[in-house]
Every structure is written in C-alpha cells, then in structure tokens.
Design goal:
With 397 residues, the chain is of the alpha/beta class. It contains 13 helices and 12 strands. Strands 2-8-7-6-5-3-4 form a 7-stranded mixed beta sheet, sandwiched between helices. A 3-stranded antiparallel beta sheet has the order 9-12-11.
C-alpha cells in the first residue's frame, strides 16, 4: 500500500493545538499541576434532574435498541418548544428540527449534505475550526473573511461577493463567537439575511452559546428575521447550557429543504444518540431552568475573577460579553513569540494552558483563547503563576 496521504487528509493542515496539547500531557505525566484553560470543556456537574431522567430511562429494556437518526419525536418537540419559548420562532418538529450528536456533528454533516467539489464558502477568521474544515473535508473551498468585529465581517463579505468567482454558496455566522466572544443584535442578522437573499446564499448560523451571556439582552436567533427560515439553518447545543458536553446532544433547525438534506445524510451515517440521553435532553429543555441561570452565574463570576486577577498580574484581558471564553491579546512584550510559542512558554514556565489564536485562523495570531473552565481558586492561582513568570522574564522578552 502506498504511504501517500489520503486526499481528504491532505487538505487538513497540521493541528495547531497539538504541540501545546503534547506539552501539557508530558508535564502532567511528570506530575506537574497544569491549570488548563485550553479546551472549552465544562467542569461543573450536569444538573441532577437530567441525570436522574437518564438513569431512569436507561433501566427500561427497550431503550437499549437503536434509536432514531433524526432524534426521537419527544426530543424534537422539546427543541421546537425551546425555540418558541426563547426566540418566539415556530418550528415544525417533523420537518424543521433534527437532533444532532452535538452541534459540531450537525454542522459538519450539513456541510457534507450541501457542498459539492469546489463550492466556495464564506467563513469568518478567526473562527471555530469546524466552521471552515467541515466544508474543506466535504470538498469545498474556504474564503476566509477577516472578522475583527461582526460589522467588519459583514463588510468583508459584501466586498468578497463583488469579486469572487465562482460565486460562493454558503455564508457562515457564529455569535456569540467562539473564540472571540463577540455578540450581535437582531439588526446584524437582518443585514446578513438581506445580503444572503440578494446573492442566493445559504446561511449556517452557530448559536451554541445562546444561553451563556453576561451583558445586555440575551443573544437572538437568526430565525427571528422575517424570511430567514427559507435559507438559514441554525445549530445549537445543550453542551454548555446544561453542562452536558459528554452527552453529545445538539440540534439543527430551520429551512425545511436544508434539514431534509441533513436528515438524508445522517440516515446513512448514524442511528442517533442513545435513547436515554435523548430523553434526558428533552427533560433538560422542558424542565426547570434555574440550573441554566446558575451555570451562567458561575461563568460570569469566573470571567470577573479572570479579568481582575490577570489584570493585577500584568495581563490586560478584555471582559467577554458572552460565551465561556476570553479572547486575550498576547501582552506586547511577548508579542514577537507568536501565539503558539507564547502558549508553549506559558505552560512550561507557569503551568497554565491556553489555546493559541493561530489555531482559529490566520487572523487569530496575536491572541490566545482562555476557557472559563477552572474554578475561581484555580484562576487566582493561575494569575499568581503568570505574575511570577512575567516578573522573571528577561527585559524585552
């Protein structure tokens, strides 16, 4: 057999985070206590009533059978009720809702469903990697549009549409943003839908952080815009909202045509999540929501401690308005290192792990992403470590 790389694998660049992850694993194996802000992995327990529903359902003999690829009807109805309650958006659970194995799987398989070889996709930079690589794996071509702000991103999209050949087929949105924590209002979505309609674009909106917000009004859905449902699909997730990341439950909702395409692809690939997990997810969406308020409060408190403690340590970090991340500029004296080397230096010297901005695209260079996934005591310990290594670093470092 030839040792040449497979075609789709060749289209994927080396994993930027791998060198940092490898160093983290090496230090931990040597007994180092690494404070890990690198991955957006919720550390709080899943609310009790959700776990109890999972266990109760798991004891029923029939629930060990294959489930439904599109999601069991009860879960799809609960997802539709969530959109009606939270956004005032009416969805048909049979034709406009699919339960996915997390929002990441839904996004990637939707890319598979709608992308042909050479199709051009407009995606933000920086962005969560699946927003580009889901399409690249499917054979598409990414036009990365700089996104220093949501408004700048839409201006860049408008400019690209005037010159791109072939014309793009898909526009990707993600607000609240991972990694930048940027937020938008409904007027932004109105502008985006108008641009998409005038250029016959499909819009994929990632709203995974819809319930992790700290300032102002709750984040809106693009489906609140009149006419959006004709060309838009939104993916969302229970991972952060209910601390259910390992459950792998998300949703894709919106355009009946696009949801049907996703459903057809999924029908060949999976039988859906384990039924007790889906029943538990329905219980999460339909049950008491005070747990969501508590999870949001925990992230807000951690954000405030992070910004204050790291600021006192000599690292000014803008306070994120939403999401479970801070998007932090590398301190000026270390900027020449670049985000990958700075991240490696920080984990080596301070035992603090962050995600290098370059891993989120070319325009992520100069930043690191810090996850709010350690408790307040650990955040303060990390700040003390940072203060120490900043003080010990040679002048001009």
């Amino acid at each position: 057999m030839s040792d040449q790389e497979f075609h789709r694998i060749k289209r994927l660049p080396p994993y930027v985070f791998e060198s940092v992850n490898a160093l983290k694993a090496k230090l931990r194996a040597a007994g180092e206590d690494v404070i890990d802000f690198g991955m957006g992995n919720p550390d709080m327990p899943t609310p009790k009533h959700i776990v109890e529903k999972l266990v109760e359902t798991a004891w029923k003999p029939r629930t060990g059978r294959y489930s439904a690829s599109r999601g069991i009807p009860g879960l799809r109805k609960a997802m539709a009720r969530y959109y009606a309650r939270r956004f005032g958006v009416s969805l048909n659970p049979d034709t406009e809702v699919i339960a996915t194995l997390g929002s990441k799987e839904g996004f990637a398989n939707l890319a598979q469903a709608i992308t042909g070889p050479g199709d051009a996709i407009l995606a933000p930079d920086p962005a969560y990697p699946i927003h580009a690589y889901g399409f690249i794996i499917a054979g598409g071509v990414i036009r990365a549009v700089p996104a220093p702000s949501p408004e700048a991103y839409l201006r860049g999209v408008s400019s690209a549409l005037k010159t791109m050949r072939p014309a793009p087929t898909v526009l990707v949105l993600n607000y609240p943003s991972n990694p930048t924590a940027q937020v938008v209002d409904l007027d932004f979505y109105r502008d985006a839908v108008a641009i998409a309609a005038s250029h016959d674009l499909i819009v994929l909106s990632d709203l995974a952080y819809s319930e992790i917000y700290f300032e102002g009004a709750p984040p809106p859905s693009i489906l609140q815009v009149d006419g959006a449902k004709a060309r838009c699909v939104e993916v969302n997730s229970l991972s952060k909202t209910y601390a259910m990341a390992g459950f792998r439950v998300g949703m894709a909702v919106g355009s009946e045509r696009l949801i049907a395409a996703l459903g057809r692809v999924k029908s060949y690939l999976d039988y859906g999540a384990y039924t007790p997990i889906q029943v538990a997810a329905a219980a999460a969406l339909d049950g008491p929501q005070d747990c969501v308020d508590e999870i949001r409060r925990i992230y807000r408190d951690r954000r405030d401690v992070l910004v204050d403690a790291f600021g006192r340590a000599g690292w000014t970090i803008p306070s994120p308005a939403a999401s479970m991340f801070a998007w932090a500029p590398i301190p000026e004296r270390f900027a020449e290192m670049g985000s990958v080397e700075f991240s490696k230096w920080l984990i080596r010297e301070a035992a603090v792990a962050v995600a290098p901005g370059l891993g989120f695209g070319e325009h992520g260079e100069g930043f690191v992403r810090i996850g709010l996934v350690e408790n307040e005591q650990r955040i303060r310990q990390a700040a003390r470590n940072v203060r120490r290594v900043f003080a010990e670093a040679p002048a001009g470092a």
